[in-house]
Design brief:
heterodimer; A: alpha/beta; 12 helices; 8 strands; 14% strand; globular; B: alpha/beta; four-stranded parallel β-sheet; three-stranded antiparallel β-sheet
C-alpha cells in the first residue's frame, strides 16, 4: 500500500497543521539531514526541503526528502523552475512519487544572481503557476505536457507559495486566486511580521472565498538577533519587518535576543491560530532548525494529532 | 534595433596582432544607431589603432569603410575586390553582419570588434534597453505591450514573483518590476481581467528552433 501525505490528512481532518523548513547541507552529507529530521520528528506534521535556496548549491531537495522519508517523516519537496526545464521537472516529479514523497511545493525560485553561481543560465522554462498546473495534470489526468500518457501517475499533494507583503497588494490576492485556479491545494506564505498588512491581505482572501478552495499556512521565522531582523528588513526582497519589531529586538540585551525572537514567533503563531482562513503554520527557522520543537511546544501546538 | 558594444581595445588589438593590413568595416544600421559600429565609431577605432601602432613603431595600414547594412548581400558586395587586399577584416557589424560577410568571402579572415548584446530601444541619449528576446510567438497583446520574457528577470508568464517591492525588481533595484508595469497599464486601460488567464507553458521551440531559425517567404522570392 502506498503512503499518503500526512499534511493532507491533517488538513482534511481540520487540524491546525504545522510544517517546518529544513535546509540541506552544502555537501554530500546525509547525516545532517537525518539529524534535522530526527529532531523535528513528532513536533511537526511535515518538513519542507528547500531547493537550492537563494541560488546556492546544496544537496538536492529530492535526495534530502528521500532521506527524511526513511526517517519516518512526511517531506514536502520544494521544486523551483529556475534550474530545470520541463523534461527534468517532470522526470523528478515522477521520481519523487516513486520514492514515496507525497507533497510538492512549486516555486519559481530565487534568481540565480543572488547565489554562488551567478553565471548560471536561469532556465525558467515554465513558471511556478505552470508547474502547479503541470503536477495536477500529471496526477489527475495521468498525462505529461503534450498529452502522452503515464503508466502510473504521481501521487502528490500540491502546494504553492504566496508573499502577502510583496507588491502590488491589489494583485497579490488575484495571484493567489490564480494559483488556486491552477490547482494549488495548499499555500505556504512568506514570513509574517506585519500583522496589519497580513490582516488586510487575509481579509481580501476571505472576501473572495479563496481560503475555502486552498489550505493556507502562515509563515513564521523566529528572529535570532536584532541584527538578523535589520538584515532581513534591508536585504531580503519582499520581506516586511516593521520598525517596532526591530525596536523590540534591540530593546533586550544581545544574550536574550534569541528568547525575544522566540516570543515574537510564538505570538505570531497565536495570531495565526485565531485567524479565520489560516489552517496552519509553516516555520522557517533559517539555520536554526533546533528551535522548532521549543517553538511548537510554547505555541501550544503539541501534541501533534494522530491521523 | 540590434544593440552592441565595442570590445575593449586590448582585446581587439590581440585579435589583429598577427596582421599588418587591416580593413575596418562599419555598419550604418542598428549598430550605428546605438553608437557602436557606425561610420563615426569606425573612424574612432581606426584612429586609435593607428595611434597605438605609431607609438609602437609598427607599420600598419588601416582602411575604413562603412556599409549601409553588413547583413544584406547587395551592400556586402561593396567589399568585393577590396577585402582581398587586406590581411584581416575588423567588423563593427553585429554578429549577423560578421557572419554574413564571412559567408560571401569564404577565404577572408574576419574578426569582430563588437559584442552583440540585444534587441532593444533607444530609451534616451546614451541609454539602450533590451525589449525583445525574439521568442517567435509574440504575446504582447496579453501583457499591455510589455514583454515579461524580456523585462521580467525570471521571464514569468504568470507573475509577479514575491520579490516585487515598491515597483522595483528584486534582482536589480534600478529596474522596474515588469509585472508592476503590466498590472498598472492593464488597470489603467480597464483590462485587468486579462490577468486572470493562466498562461500555459510556452513553446520555446519557436525560439530555439533546430539550430538557426529561418523565415522562408515564397512571395519574396523572384
Amino acid at each position: 500500500m502506498r503512503g499518503e501525505s500526512r499534511l493532507k490528512k491533517v488538513l482534511l481532518k481540520g487540524h491546525f497543521a504545522v510544517t517546518a523548513e529544513c535546509g540541506p547541507p552544502k555537501g554530500a552529507d546525509s547525516k545532517d539531514i537525518d539529524k534535522k529530521g530526527k529532531m523535528l520528528k513528532g513536533f511537526v506534521d511535515s518538513v519542507n526541503v528547500t531547493d537550492n535556496q537563494t541560488g546556492v548549491v546544496r544537496l538536492s531537495s529530492l535526495a534530502a526528502c528521500a532521506i527524511l522519508l526513511q526517517g519516518g517523516l512526511d517531506p514536502v519537496l520544494q521544486m523551483v523552475t529556475r534550474d530545470r526545464n520541463r523534461i527534468a521537472l517532470q522526470s523528478d516529479i515522477l521520481g519523487a512519487s516513486a520514492l514515496g514523497i507525497r507533497n510538492i511545493l512549486c516555486l519559481s525560485g530565487d534568481h540565480q544572481s543572488f547565489g554562488n553561481q551567478p553565471q548560471a543560465k536561469g532556465v525558467f522554462d515554465i513558471d511556478s503557476i505552470q508547474l502547479v498546473q503541470l503536477v495536477r495534470q500529471m496526477r489527475d489526468e495521468g498525462v505529461i505536457l503534450g498529452g502522452e500518457k503515464l503508466t502510473e501517475p504521481p501521487h502528490l499533494f500540491v502546494g504553492a507559495v504566496e508573499n502577502p507583503f510583496a507588491d502590488p497588494l491589489s494583485y497579490r490576492v488575484l495571484r493567489l486566486e490564480k494559483k488556486a485556479a491552477a490547482g494549488a491545494e495548499f499555500i505556504q506564505t512568506q514570513c509574517i511580521y506585519n500583522p496589519g498588512r497580513f490582516t488586510e491581505w487575509i481579509g481580501q482572501v476571505r472576501e473572495r472565498g479563496i481560503h475555502e478552495r486552498v489550505s493556507i499556512l502562515g509563515g513564521v521565522t523566529p528572529l535570532k538577533s536584532a541584527r538578523m531582523a535589520e538584515y532581513m528588513s534591508e536585504q531580503v526582497a519582499g520581506m516586511d519587518i516593521p520598525d517596532d519589531i526591530i525596536k523590540r529586538m534591540k530593546s533586550v540585551p544581545a544574550d536574550r535576543q534569541r528568547e525575544e525572537g522566540i516570543k515574537i514567533a510564538v505570538e505570531a503563531i497565536g495570531m495565526l491560530k485565531e485567524t479565520k482562513g489560516i489552517r496552519g503554520v509553516h516555520i522557517m527557522a533559517i539555520g536554526w532548525e533546533d528551535v522548532v520543537p521549543q517553538l511548537v511546544e510554547e505555541a501550544g501546538l503539541m501534541p501533534r494529532p494522530t491521523v | 534595433m540590434i544593440t552592441a558594444e565595442r570590445k575593449p581595445l586590448s582585446e581587439i588589438r590581440e585579435m589583429i596582432a598577427p596582421y599588418r593590413r587591416i580593413l575596418v568595416v562599419g555598419c550604418g544600421s542598428c549598430v550605428a544607431e546605438c553608437a557602436a559600429g557606425g561610420e563615426k565609431e569606425v573612424g574612432l577605432l581606426a584612429s586609435a589603432l593607428r595611434m597605438e601602432a605609431r607609438a609602437e613603431g609598427c607599420d600598419m595600414e588601416i582602411k575604413e569603410i562603412t556599409l549601409d547594412r553588413q547583413c544584406v548581400y547587395e551592400f556586402i558586395d561593396q567589399l568585393t575586390g577590396l577585402i582581398d587586399q587586406y590581411d584581416v577584416m575588423l567588423s563593427l557589424g553585429c554578429g549577423a553582419g560578421v557572419q554574413a560577410v564571412a559567408e560571401v568571402f569564404p577565404r577572408a579572415i574576419i574578426v569582430p570588434a563588437l559584442n552583440t548584446t540585444f534587441v532593444g530601444e533607444t530609451k534616451e541619449a546614451g541609454l539602450w534597453v533590451e525589449k525583445c528576446r525574439g521568442c517567435g510567438d509574440c504575446k504582447l497583446g496579453f501583457f499591455a505591450a510589455i514583454c515579461p520574457i524580456t523585462c521580467c528577470a525570471k521571464g514569468l508568464f504568470n507573475g509577479p514573483c514575491g520579490g516585487s517591492q515598491d515597483g522595483q525588481c528584486e534582482v536589480d533595484p534600478d529596474t522596474p518590476c515588469a509585472w508592476q508595469l503590466i498590472i498598472t497599464r492593464l488597470e489603467e486601460s480597464g483590462r485587468i481581467g486579462l490577468l486572470k488567464k493562466v498562461h500555459p507553458a510556452a513553446d520555446w521551440s519557436r525560439q530555439q528552433g533546430r539550430g538557426p531559425r529561418r523565415i522562408t517567404r515564397e512571395d519574396q522570392r523572384i
